[in-house]
Amino acid sequence: MKSRKPKRHTAFVSNNAFTPDAIASDASWLPDMADCGERPASAEDFVQAYLADPGAWHWSTDLLNDSKEETLKRALAVIARARLPDHQQALGQLGAGPIEDMMSEMLLDYLRAWMPFSEPMRYALHCVRMNVEPPALQQRLRAMLAVW
Length: 148
Prior knowledge:
It is a single chain. The protein has one domain. It has 9 helices and no strands. The chain has helices spanning 10-14, 20-25, 43-52, 54-57, 68-81, 88-101, 105-111, 119-126, 135-146. The radius of gyration is 16 Å and the shape is globular.
């Protein structure tokens, strides 16, 4: 009998919903604005509102109300549109918040689709506190950040 090797998720990751194109073409990750009594926002409306006032939008990426997948898509959509130095607060908040909370091998697999990283992505990732992560994960992120 042939032994089965466990399937790795890397095949899924190479063609997944966390690529820049997939996030740009799918707005299912938008927060539900009906709960706030506001009209539903477009992806562009959400990203611009977040960048303009990250403090007011922190709830949309805090992992308390929505799935990790939706939160990651929101964070990546914001990072993709952010510009330095104008959006340092938003990028820092995303890096030290949801990106740090989701730091894992799987997250780094997802982020491979974003390489080489833009300066806003680098800034957000540098805000992640990595000293609590396993050394192999720290080393992998350092290697990814070294790719230009």
